[in-house]
Design a protein that fits this description.
Layout lengths: L43 E9 L2 H11 L23 H5 L14 E9 L8 E14 L2 E11 L5 E10 L29 E2 L11 E8 L2 H7 L13 H6 L9 H16 L3 H4 L1 E6 L8 E13 L5 E10 L5 E10 L5
Parallel strand pairs: 6-7
Antiparallel strand pairs: 1-3, 2-5, 2-8, 3-4, 4-5, 7-9, 8-11, 9-10, 10-11
Helix pairs in contact: 1-3
């Protein structure tokens, strides 16, 4: 059952307890369209969903991302507990499953862009809305563009989202993709004498490199992130679905990688990332569960902000152990000032 503005809020897109009332669990997706490029109807309203930012949602996300900062479990600079910066990224990505059958999706998330306007607070009921706004064919694959937004109970913008997805493909046969237009290409090259920093501050300069952090997403983390708790089956939470997609084992969702980068940038920028942050990330090749990946970034520019202060612009990337870039992109946020 699809939620709308008249349905009581739940912490997920669907309330998984409803499935026990169905004689046939396949009925949970009754009325939803096959996720085929030919079935798109652009523009296409993907609906509105209300979700509760509760203790369980925050703790579950912390497990999937290995992100246990004190702001999410105690007090934050915004007063009280808040949700992680990218807590609602996958909820927005998955909004299309309000219209399309989630368990029949074998897609590939190619790009995620998000603007961070304000944090979501513990106990707050937020509203998600999304629309398919464009579609196109490139290299024989059908792509679709989603614009979406999260608003708080008081009507403020929490985050804005634009995502690009290959609606249906065979992930195991996808080759590498370019990292962007030539003038913005992310190479991941770092000078030998670059200054490596753990955080950004008023002394940050162009060329500073963010200290690399290595993560390993386990199958359990990927499965929970990818809606196994809602009984959704996909290439991220089911070995057979992954094999059907010609993959050796399940792969890590692009949205989960996006969250890993966002978590690192929160550590680097501090509270300012929740109100001034921006990320545009491209996913080049699949990342397997249990595969160690290393996240880092380099400062490419520092520009003045209206009203004072400065914004740091970054190239960001993820590498796997063989050195190959698997995920690349760009980010920015206001620099903290030195006290």
């Amino acid at each position: 059952m699809t939620q709308d503005s008249t349905t009581r809020s739940w912490r997920d897109l669907t309330d998984p307890r409803r499935i026990v009332d169905l004689d046939d669990i396949e009925d949970r997706e009754a009325g939803r369209k096959e996720p085929e490029f030919e079935n798109l109807d652009i523009p296409e309203n993907l609906g509105t969903v209300r979700e509760l930012i509760d203790d369980h949602k925050i703790k579950r996300y912390a497990f999937t991302q290995d992100e246990y900062g004190p702001w999410y479990f105690d007090n934050s600079p915004f007063g009280g507990r808040i949700g992680q910066a990218a807590l609602l990224c996958n909820d927005l990505v998955q909004m299309f499953t309000n219209v399309y059958a989630a368990s029949k999706v074998v897609g590939f998330h190619t790009e995620e862009q998000m603007w961070f306007d304000s944090p979501a607070r513990l106990g707050e009921e937020v509203t998600l809305s999304a629309t398919y706004t464009d579609s196109y064919v490139r290299r024989g694959e059908g792509y679709v563009v989603m614009d979406a937004q999260v608003t708080g109970e008081d009507g403020r913008s929490v985050i804005r989202h634009r995502g690009v997805e290959i609606l249906k493909t065979v992930p195991g046969t996808l080759g590498g993709r370019g990292s962007g237009t030539p003038e913005r290409r992310v190479t991941g090259d770092v000078p030998d004498d670059a200054q490596v920093v753990a955080v950004f501050d008023g002394n940050t300069t162009v060329g500073d490199v963010l200290k690399p952090v290595t993560k390993e997403v386990t199958f359990e983390q990927a499965a929970v992130f990818s809606r196994i708790g809602e009984y959704v089956i996909n290439t991220h939470n089911n070995l057979q679905a992954a094999r059907d997609g010609k993959l050796r084992q399940p792969i890590v969702q692009g949205a989960q990688q996006f969250g890993l980068i966002a978590g690192r940038l929160v550590e680097a920028f501090g509270p300012a990332f929740f109100t001034t942050g921006w990320m545009q990330i491209k996913f080049l090749v699949p990342v397997e569960v249990f595969e160690p990946i290393t996240i880092t970034a380099v400062v490419t520019d520092i520009v003045p902000r209206d009203g004072g202060g400065f914004t740091a612009e970054l190239d960001v990337w993820i590498r796997r152990p063989d050195g190959r870039l698997v995920t690349v992109g760009w980010a920015s946020a206001a620099l903290p000032t030195n006290s």
